[in-house]
């Protein structure tokens, strides 16, 4: 167990490392340490959905390998009397004469194809989720920066009004108004910080890497590749559902073939009173009551479920592609009204308001109203850019576009 001294030394060392890292980052200027593509690449290596899909694929491949030759293992039986006067040894291999093995191989191969398509879709879905999380974080950081500018402006206005009040040039009402505006700006900043830290934590969890606000792209649109074409092939989840139906049909055929038990073919050796008998052996069992009714009905139910899932999925995919395209087209139309650098515009507008107040050209109440409008507008600009990026990612995901994956590490 660590002592208090060791913990203190470790904490001090950690603080020094963090200070050095922050200093180095400050020296690098506005360098982005975590691009959207890097975030996607990190998530694709650690996300549990990807690992679950990979495990399902390995399981399907193992099942296919197990049924590649025979369904059942060869069996060997031996017995003998205590005096060895009688003994018997037999070796047999179960063989289905009704095609159960062939149907099993068809089902396992279809399941492998379905698992491969499901993994492909899972990778794109996770990539889209990470990009959306990155967009949310970038928007939250931008809105928090705008709120910080507003809080700093409110503090400077309150200081200026306080000085004027002391000199008799400002009324008590103006002083109270300045204080109230500062409180409102502080509340707006704290609310923005709360959203920011939650978004940063979500991105850290998605990438399995601690993330800070200064590491992200300033523009949320950077996380959304531009859509250049429509889908030309079926989506991977639709392909997976169709292959799942093929696997279910083959599984039903296998259960129907399993109504008759496999025939055992092999060889036998027996010794009795000094005489030896050696020759081929074959055995078969005839089911009189249980003809695998439960297995057949279960397979029919699984096929019905798979068909229902495909029908629902195809309808949803068509709706997703239509609505995502309409949303993206509408979002692209408004790109012309967006500010390229909302934070710079906010700072310029805030500086103009502050200069007007100090020069006596703008009274405090007007300055407060202008500041609120400016800050709300610039915060909305970040939100709008984030929604535009969101629409692009949504369209890419609906089309199963490879650009979602980006450049992996």
What does this structure look like?
The chain is α+β, with helices and mostly antiparallel strands. It has a domain at about 30-70 and about 115-255 and about 315-405: Outer membrane efflux proteins (OEP) (Up-down Bundle). The chain is built from 9 helices and 4 strands, in the order αααββαααββααα. It has helices at about 5-25, 35-45, 50-65, 100-165, 170-205, 235-255, 295-335, 340-360, 365-400; strands spanning about 75-80, 85-95, 265-270, 275-285. Strands 1-2-3-4 form a 4-stranded antiparallel sheet, with no helix packed on it. Strand 3 and strand 4 form a beta hairpin. Helix 4 runs antiparallel to helix 6 and helix 6 runs antiparallel to helix 7. The radius of gyration is 35 Å and the shape is elongated. Residues about 1-30 have low confidence and may be disordered.
List keywords for this structure.
Outer membrane efflux proteins (OEP), 4-stranded antiparallel beta sheet, alpha+beta, 409 residues, 9 helices, 4 strands
Shape: elongated
Second-tier CATH architecture of the domain at 32-72 and 113-257 and 317-404 = Up-down Bundle
Kindly identify the CATH topology of the domain at 32-72 and 113-257 and 317-404. Outer membrane efflux proteins (OEP)
SS-based structural class? alpha+beta
Short description:
It is built from nine helices and four strands. By secondary structure, the protein is α+β, with helices and mostly antiparallel strands. It has a four-stranded antiparallel β-sheet with strand order 1-2-3-4, with no helix packed on it.
């Amino acid at each position: 167990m660590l002592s208090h001294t060791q913990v203190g030394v470790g904490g001090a060392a950690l603080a020094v490392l963090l200070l050095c890292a922050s200093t180095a980052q400050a020296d690098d200027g506005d360098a982005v340490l975590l691009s959207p593509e890097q975030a996607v690449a990190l998530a694709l290596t650690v996300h549990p959905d990807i690992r679950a899909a990979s495990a399902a694929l390995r399981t399907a491949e193992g099942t296919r390998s197990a049924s590649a030759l025979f369904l059942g293992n060869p069996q060997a039986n031996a017995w003998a009397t205590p005096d060895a006067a009688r003994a018997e040894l037999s070796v047999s291999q179960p063989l289905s004469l009704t095609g159960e093995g062939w149907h099993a191989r068809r089902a396992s191969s279809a399941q492998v194809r379905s698992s491969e398509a499901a993994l492909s879709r899972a990778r794109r879905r996770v990539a889209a989720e990470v990009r959306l999380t990155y967009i949310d974080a970038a928007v939250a950081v931008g809105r928090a920066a705008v709120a910080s500018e507003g809080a700093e402006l409110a503090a400077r206005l309150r200081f200026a009004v306080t000085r004027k009040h002391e000199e008799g040039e400002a009324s008590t009402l103006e002083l109270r108004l300045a204080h109230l505006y500062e409180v409102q700006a502080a509340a707006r900043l704290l609310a923005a910080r709360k959203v920011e830290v939650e978004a940063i934590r979500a991105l850290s969890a998605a990438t399995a890497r601690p993330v800070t606000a200064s590491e992200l792209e300033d523009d949320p649109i950077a996380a959304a590749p531009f859509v250049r074409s429509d889908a030309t092939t079926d989506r991977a989840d639709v392909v997976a559902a169709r292959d799942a139906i093929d696997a279910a049909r083959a599984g039903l055929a296998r259960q129907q073939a399993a109504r008759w038990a496999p025939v055992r073919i092999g060889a036998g050796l027996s010794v009795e009173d000094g005489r030896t008998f050696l020759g081929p052996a074959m055995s078969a069992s005839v089911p009189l009551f249980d003809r695998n009714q439960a297995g057949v009905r279960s397979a029919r139910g699984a096929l019905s479920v798979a068909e229902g899932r495909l029908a629902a999925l195809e309808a949803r995919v068509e709706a997703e592609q239509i609505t995502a395209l309409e949303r993206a087209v509408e979002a692209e139309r408004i790109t012309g009204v967006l500010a390229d650098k909302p934070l710079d515009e906010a700072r310029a507008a805030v500086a103009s308001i502050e200069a007007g107040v100090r020069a006596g050209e703008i009274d405090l109440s007007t300055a407060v109203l202008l500041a609120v409008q400016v800050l709300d507008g610039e915060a909305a600009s970040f939100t709008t850019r984030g929604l535009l990026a969101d629409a692009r990612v949504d369209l890419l995901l609906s089309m199963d576009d490879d650009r979602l994956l980006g450049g992996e590490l």
